[in-house]
Amino acid sequence: MNRIKMRASKIICFAVGAMLAATAASADEISIVSNILGPEGPLYIDGNLYYVGWLSHTLSKWDGKTTTVLNHTPGCGHNGLALTKQKTFLLACTEEHGAILELDLTGKQLRRWDADKNGKPFVKIANVK
User: Fold this and answer.
1) What is the pLDDT of residues 49-108, one digit of tens each?
2) CB-based contacts of 83: which residues, under 8 Å, 6+ apart?
3) CATH of 39-113, one of 3.90.79.10, 3.40.980.10, 3.60.10.10, 2.40.10.500
4) Which of 50, 59, 62, 87 has its CA at a distance of 20 to 30 angstroms from the CA of residue 36?
5) What's 96's DSSP letter?
6) Would you state the pLDDT for residue 35?
7) Burial (CB count within 10 angstroms: exposed 0-12, middle 13-18, buried 19+), residue 37
């Protein structure tokens, strides 16, 4: 019986310790932008935070005070954000047909790829349902 009580108290101590550790870990976290619908690919460039919202179909920039939507492409499902050597963004569209967009830092579309080099159309690049 004592053995069961000791095992139960060890489990309780472990659970309390885990909860305290989780609380301490999250105490250092702060939210800087809220109400993002499906945030993806945060990139910090020249003092600005760029991120996509795949549910809102947007590329946004946060300058430390204000959030600005730079690109809204209906039906894209913005997902995955990468910076190229030329300081442009590559962004994956994950909706019905899939595509890859190249955008400048203001969100202007420079190029769009809907198919591979052989002309075969993309099929849902990510988040396959």
Assistant:
1) 999 887 788 899 999 899 899 999 887 888 889 999 999 999 988 876 788 999 999 999
2) 43, 45, 89, 90
3) 2.40.10.500
4) 87
5) S
6) 62
7) exposed
